[in-house]
Amino acid sequence: MASPAFAHPGHDVTAGFPAGFAHPFLGADHLLAMVAVGLWAAQYGGRKGLALPMGFVGGMLAGAVLGFSGTGLPGAESLIALSLVLFGGALALKARLPLLLAGTLTFAAGLFHGHAHAVEANGSALAYVGGFVLATALLHAAGGFAGWRLAAVRHAVPLAGGAVALAGIAMLAG
Question: Which domain covers residue 85, as residue numbers?
Fold first, then answer.
């Protein structure tokens, strides 16, 4: 009898695209940050809101290049947790920062998230990056959709933001 591990060779979910796709979903820090970026983008609405996820993905790609090249980013894990405090705080306070500033902050946060993704990569770097970029875009879209749907629910988004910020504080403390 063939074992499941050998029944379909070449379907290694611990490397390449599947691993890259799974990574943002498997870490609460990445998952919360990416959904929060989508929620925050929804507060800007329309095309303006796209600047935040685009900034995040751009930063993430730059961070991945640094990670794959062996360039270290000291304190990256703490800065990832701090991104939760930033995004959660912005949501909790209903902050609509100037778009350039908000986009720059999401780019900077994406830099650290992308670096973390890259240093944990297995298999084909290009496939891995494709996986985490697609997963990130889907999480941003889910956050944006939730933000759009919850806009009429008075305290839903600020409460969600507070929860994200508290998660970031807990990660920094623990």
Answer: 17-173
